[in-house]
Amino acid sequence: MLSTYPEKQYAVRCIKLGANGYLNKSADPDDMLAAVRKVAAGGVYVTPATAEALAAAVGQRGAQAGPEALSHREHQVFRLLTQGQSVTQIGAQLGLAANTVSTYRARILDKTGTKNDVELALYAERHGQR
Predict the structure, then answer these.
(1) SS3 state at 103
(2) For residue 104, what are the contacts with CB-CB under 8 A and spacing of at least 6?
């Protein structure tokens, strides 16, 4: 997967969801070529930074889950909450009822072990999600 987003935000998440590799579009052209060749040959391509993030995610299995544990929609809501948007604003942007967004918010707080939006924003900062 070639993305505009930094590896620290989405690489582990994308690989867990089935991607055979993840590179930021600003990666070195030689790395891109190596990645394409490896994936085309049936392999998986990860950078050293992504490998470290994957190892850390595996080590967290018994501990509190990281942002990777969030569903796709939960992750969307998570990102918008940490940008300071309200439940009403998020609902309007995603075409969801405010009650639905509130349910996602409650699940996100539970999965991240945070109690409010401020703690959630700090959590996002610590986990490279901002």
Answers:
(1) helix
(2) 73, 74, 77
- Within 8-109, strands assigned E span 23-24
Residues for the chain: how many in total? 130
Question: What pLDDT, in 10s, does the model give residues 82-113?
Answer: 999 999 999 999 999 999 999 999 999 988 88
Residue 39 neighbours by CB distance under 10 Å: 15
| Confidence (pTM) | 0.55
Which domains, and CATH codes, for the chain? 2-59 (no CATH), 67-126 (1.10.10.10)
Q: C-alpha 21: how far from its chain's center?
A: 15
- Write out 12-27 in H/E/C secondary structure: HHHHHCCCCECEECCC
Taking residue 15's Cβ as centre, other Cβ atoms within 10 Å add up to 21
Return the H-helix or E-strand segment holding 33.
helix 29-40
